Amino acid sequence: MTALARLKLDVIPASRSHLSSIIFLHGSGDTSEGLQEWLFSILGRKFCLPHSKVIFPSAPLRPYTPMNGAPSTVWFDRKQISQNAPEDLESVDPMCEEISKVIQQEVDQGIPRNKIIVGGFSMGGCLALHVAYRFQRELGGVFALSAFLNNNSKVYQDLASPDSRRPPLFQCHGQVDPLVLYEWGETTKDQLTRAGVTCQFQRYPRLYHEMNKDELDKLQAWIEQTLESS
Question: Where in the numbering of this chain does the Phospholipase/carboxylesterase/thioesterase domain appear (predicted)?
Answer without folding.
Answer: 11-226
